[in-house]
Amino acid sequence: MNGIYYYLIAFGVIWILAAIFHEKLSNHGFEIDFPIIMWKTQRLRGFLTKISNLSPRFWRWFMNVGIIVAYGAMIFITGTLLSTLPSVFDTPAVSIVIPGVEMPGSSIYVPFVYGIIALATVLIVHEFSHGIQSIGEKIPIKSIGLLLFAVIPGAFVEPDEEKLKSAKKTSRLRVYAAGSIANISLAIIALLLFSLISAGIPNYFAEDGIEIDRIVSDSPSDGILKEGMVLQAIDGVKINDSQSYVDTVGSFKPGDNISVQTDQGTYSVALGKNPNNESVGFFGIQANKHFKLVDDSLGPLPWVLFELLDLFQWIFMLNLGIGLFNLLPIKPLDGGYMLQILLSYKMSEEKYIPIVNALSVVLAMVIVFSLVASFI
User: Fold this and answer.
1) What is the DSSP secondary structure assignment for residue 202, as one 8-state letter?
2) Of 280, 255, 279, which is closest to residue 269 (Cα–Cα)?
3) Other CB atoms closer than 10 Å to residue 66's CB: what's the count?
4) Looking at the predicted structure, is the pLDDT value of residue 200 above 90?
5) What number is the average pLDDT over the span 205-212?
6) Predicted local confidence at residue 321, as pLDDT
7) Do the beta carbons of residue 114 and residue 310 sit within 8 Å?
8) Residue whose C-alpha is closest to residue 177's, from 255, 64, 89, 257
9) Hey, is 344 helix, strand or coil?
10) Is the distance from CB of 327 to CB of 127 less than 8 angstroms?
């Protein structure tokens, strides 16, 4: 069963329980008004206050730099999005990310466990940073909580809107930039940890071929090849490393009948059309380097390094991707409000509001078009 059905079943159960226990849940901070379920609490405000008060000067100057980085990232991600339009049907730039679910047209598959943990870091770091910066700017926090919009989970920090609107422009910029800058910062930390662990891998392991990590559902290899198989040769070409694997699989055309030799036997696969390039043959497998321990005396402990590599990889990718996406100049994303404040330095409200609204509509249409193209 496709992973999306498990999500739909889970969210269906949540909504049924919410309807049955509506009154009891309302007494414990839940607000249920279809299509939104919100849970609000004030318990974490003290925690955020303590963090904010550890070094108010640091948070202020860190986010002063963050504002500059955020505007630079806004230009970068907007340009990247627009530049992909000519090739949107070949390689869509925007994809919905759901851990454990294969999304049509997307070459990225996010493993369930690593994806859930990584998305949790995205939400926690993003919203807590908004809260920490709000407190530092003397903008009270009304509540902190979780939400479910139909089947889309999320988290939020609710500042005092009136205080936020009346705050200085620089204060508001720091608050709006805080979430994405925190995500980008965590992505950098995860990348450094990933690099550090990668550098230590050769001390414990030696490369020993290519291993199948995942079989794409309903692909030519589905039901023939299996996860965990080590590839030894493809159509008579020996697979020694990742480069020989990439060179070999890219040389076939749709319809080719290929012999795949593995450590568990030899199999025949009739290739399909690659979703991202119909002129290239499609196996429907994702593979990675296969390693063996250099020294067995350490037991299974060194294998934990690969689990950490995968975890930090997804923390990096999701924090960077979602952090940059949130800086797009689209309301109600943080980037939309930041652009609005920037334009307000030189324009009246009557001029900059229509500009930001029009740009929001255009970019939102580009995103929707990319998503539709990925499904097509």
Assistant:
1) G
2) 255
3) 24
4) no
5) 81
6) 93
7) yes
8) 64
9) helix
10) no
**How many Cβ atoms are within 10 Å of 297's Cβ, its own excluded?**
6
Judged against a pLDDT cut of 70, whether residue 1 lies above it is answered with no
169-200 vs 334-344: helix crossing angle, rounded to 10? 140
Tens-digit pLDDT profile for residues 309-344: 999 999 999 999 999 999 999 998 999 999 999 999
| Contact call for residues 71 and 292 (beta carbons, < 8 A) | no
Q: Which residue is it, tokens 């550090």?
A: 196
User: Whats the size of the chain, residue-wise?
Assistant: 376
Task: Give residue for tokens 């694997």.
Answer: 245
Res. 31: pLDDT tops 90: no
Unique residue bearing structure tokens 């009346």? 166
101: closest CA among 216, 227, 211, 221? 216
* Whole-prediction pTM: 0.82
Domains and CATH numbers, the chain: 33-198+313-375 (no CATH), 205-293 (2.30.42.10)
The encoded tokens of residue 248 equal: 């070999």
Q: How far is CA 208 from CA 40, 211, 250, in A?
A: 51, 9, 21
**Over pLDDT 70: what percentage of the chain?**
95
Cβ neighbours of residue 20 under 8 Å, at least 6 residues apart?
none
